[in-house]
Amino acid sequence: MTSLALLSLLYFAVSVVTLTDSSLSSITTAAAPAASKCTLLNSFQPDFVIQGDYVIGGIFPIHFNLKMPDLNGTYRPPPINCNGHRIDPRAFRWAQTMRLAVEEINQNPVLLQNRTLGYKIFDSCGYPLTGQRAVLSMLNGVSEENSSMCTNASSLLAVIGAAGSAQSIVVSRILQTFRIPMISYTSSCACLSDRQKYPNFFRVVPSDDYQVKAIAQLLVHFNWTWVGLLRGDSDYGRFAAKGLLRELQDTKVCVAYQEIIPLLYTCQVGLRIMKVMRSSTAKVVLVFAVEGEMTPFLRDYMTQNITGIQWVVIEALVTASVFSGREYYPYLGGTIGFNIRKGHISRLGDFLQTVNPKRYPDNVLVRELWESLYGCSPFPSSVTQMSLCSGQESLLEQHSAYMNTSSPRVAYNVYKAVYAIAHSLHNLLLCQPGRGPFQNNSCAQSNNIHPWQLQHYLQEVNFQIAGEEVDFDAKGNSVPYYDIINWQRGTEGNIEFANVGLFDGTKSVGEELLIQEDRIMWAGHQSEVPVSVCSASCLPGSRKAVRRGEPICCFDCVPCDSGKISNQTNSVDCTICPEDFCSNNDRTACIAKKVEYLTFNSLGIALTVMSVVGACFTLAVCGVFFCHRHTAIVRVNNSELSFFILFALTLCFLCSLLFIGKPTYWSCMLRHTAFSITSSLCISCILGKTLVVLAAFTATRPGQNIMKWLGPKQQRTIISSCTLVQLVICTAWLIEAPPFPSRNTQYEHSKIILECSVGSRLAFWCVLGYIGLQACLCFVLAFLARKLPGNFNEAKFITFSMLIFSAVWLAFIPAYISSPGNYADAVESFAILASSFGLLFCLFVPKSYIILLKPEKNTKQHLMGKETK
Question: Among 228, 558, 716, 816, which residue carries the largest CB count within 10 Å?
Fold first, then answer.
């Protein structure tokens, strides 16, 4: 129980009624007469009353201002009274709807078996304390004599009310003591669904559990992720805000601030709240408060001239006629919210027309209604000082606060609540003895019905009214169904409540909300949906990075890394593209990676031309040597080895072609092994030629006969042995871990580089190392023979060729390691061509020059330096 309810009970225990323990016992059991012990200390007259066989109560907030008594404790406290001249025509219409429903039921020959309903209607002033006073007055009766509760079962079978959840909580707790059921027409607090605390509570309005769910879906629908929350200081506002925060936990919506409008409102508190609203970037404000709480706040809000706020309100406010005046539109226009389902009451308009001061001359409420609608008094009064009017003026359409019957909502709920009681009572009266729901299959006594007996039938009631099915679930709730209302400018500048959608809680998740966005007019008379976010949305191609110490709705936008994308707005993380795909420049989509390898493009064509030219040039030299094979320069330089070298060089030139084109399993194995074997063959031949040159020089010395160890057969053996070593290494390489085609996706995210993986790196470097070893040995031997006598010293050319060969391959190693994919193949191919051209030019171009252009020097004497001068 809240502190407000506790204070209320303590106050009314003194000022309203005094009950002894024995009298309370007599009330609850109705077993012994105790009328002499009931003492009425004060009276609270009903606003409308009619006698009947069965009496129900009605509590309506006909006034919305209180006149608080002076509670100084020095004298008997006077009762709390509603402040006159502040009547709410809309709530007055609700009370008249209850009277109409009872009248229809009493005229219905089918319902209640010729029995009648009576009613007592009280004004709660929209305040829990006065609502408590009203319900106690219902229970007591207007005098001690007709207070049947002192001697018999309660004549009050049920209560229609109250309007606000805070009032219903207090009223329900009082009625719970007497086990009297109540049906509320607007109390939507989710707390009232607790059957342990409120076992006698029913309602024909959906629970706030559904309303906060609808509001959460609305915020998500319009992408309002940064909102303010304004609530009343009551159980209703507290539970509604708590329910909304719980509902928003699984969404991307954050609450920027939460402010409370106190019960004892002051201008200073209002200005502080407005300062928070102004400073916040949240342009959407949720309101969980009732009319009485919002009225003083909005009065100050208008004086501060604050605009640009998009209000989202609850059903208690969304059709509040008190805010429909034209002065409210600049500040409240565009407000959107959920309202209870509207219905149709055919006789309501005609019935409201019958209420006038001439027909009810003694009813103060009717007089105040006339003063509120017409600004004149039907009776002379020294208090109001208003001009007189006849009291028979016609109620017109401009009195919409009272006469608006085109789409009744709360009034329709009142209408359904009265009929729910009537149908439950009718079912009770139809009970057949021996088949009843109570102990020993008994039925309730029609002339002495206990309220708890009626509650049993109320829990089970099911009927249709105007095509709509009415029933209650186990918690006393009705079917969740809302209309979406938008506050739009009327023809006269006032606010009109337009229906722009619906929320049907009976549908599956995600399909409950249906909005006609093109019909909505937003705050500031704008047609575009307002933006209310803490941080601007992150566009596709970026992700959200939450700021440290701030809510998740406040974030920075960080571009996705290369190879990652985000194709949605406000992505939390970037998605990694599949291996064969990369991100586009905007990082919004994965595109297929470009496949690259050394193909016949400009680079490949250049290498191909060089390879073919080199091979052709080598064959041309071979042809020249073959045609002049009997000349001195060819014979002196060992023609057989020369032809072997030219053959190996031709193969080396052609080997570079294997590096061009899409790598395959066979091409990868051939390109490295073929080059290594042909290169080794070429260097072996040059090594053999170098040894022959050295042997020939040594053989000219006395006592030296080395040439017999370097005859043609021995030369072939040396060449075969050196080449065989390379062949063994290559064979082991192919058997153990041969080269294979691979896809390099690591070097560059936007490309797939097709290349040949060497397989065993050890074998690869052994092959190159062996060729390098041969080249070094050949270089050393040629260097030693560089000063041999003669006009044509081939050792010099071998030395220079080996120097070029070694330089090319030493430069190749770092270039190969640092080059990716197709460039690595190009580097290796270029190294093969460069070294081959170096050998070809150094070894054979000088000889070809003499053969073709200087035939006079192509003699043995000239070559040996022994020609006659």
Answer: 228
Could you write out the DSSP letters of every residue in 24-87? HHHHHH--S--GGG-EE------SEEE--SEEEEEEE--B--EE-----SSSPPPPPEEPTT-B
Residues 851 and 816 in one domain: yes
Residues 693 and 565 in one domain: no
Task: Report the distance separating Cα 124 and Cα 135, nearest Å.
Answer: 9
Strand order in 54-60's β-sheet? 48-50, 117-123, 54-60, 156-160, 182-184, 201-203
Left if phi > 0, otherwise alpha if psi is -120 to 50, otherwise beta: which for 821? left
Question: Do 303 and 160 fall into the same domain?
Answer: no
Q: Which helix (H) or strand (E) holds 13?
A: helix 3-15
Residue carrying the six token digits 């219902």: 138
Q: Three-state SS across 837-862?
A: HHHHHHHHHHHHHHHHHCHHHCCHHH
Closest C-alpha to 649, from 852, 847, 842, 846: 842
Structure tokens given for 403: 């006469």
Q: What confidence tens digit (pLDDT) does each residue in 624-660 have?
A: 888 887 787 777 666 778 888 888 888 888 888 888 8
Q: What's the CATH number where 850 sits?
A: 1.20.1070.10
Q: How far from the centroid of its chain's Cα atoms is residue 91's Cα? A: 41
Give the whole-angstrom CA distance, residue 854 versus residue 837: 23
Report the distance separating Cα 53 and Cα 55, nearest Å: 7
| 285-301 burial code (b ≥16 CB/10 A, e <16) | bbbbbbbbbbbebbebb
The 8-class DSSP code of residue 91 comes to H
Domain residue limits at 669 = 602-864
Q: Is residue 674 part of a domain?
A: yes
Listed in sequence order, the residues at least 6 apart from 5 whose beta carbon sits closer than 8 Å to its beta carbon are 128, 169, 170, 173
571 and 665 share one domain: no
Give dist(CA 593, CA 610) in Å, integer.
Answer: 31
How open is the CA angle 508-335-301, to the nearest 5 degrees?
140
Residue pair 807/776 in contact by the 8 Å Cβ criterion: no
- Cβ atoms < 10 Å from Cβ of 619: 15
Q: Which two tokens stand for residue 863?
A: 């070559």
Distance, CA of 224 to CA of 285 (rounded, Å):
10
Degrees (nearest 5) of the Cα angle 195, 200, 205?
Answer: 85
123 bridge partner residues = 60
Instruction: Indicate the DSSP class of residue 343.
Output: -
Q: How far apart are CA 838 and CA 742, in angstroms?
A: 32
Instruction: List pLDDT tens digits, range 38-86.
Output: 565 666 777 888 988 999 999 998 887 666 666 666 777 666 667 655 7
Q: Which residues pair with 703 in a beta bridge?
A: none
Amino acid making up residue 831? A
3-class DSSP state of 498: strand
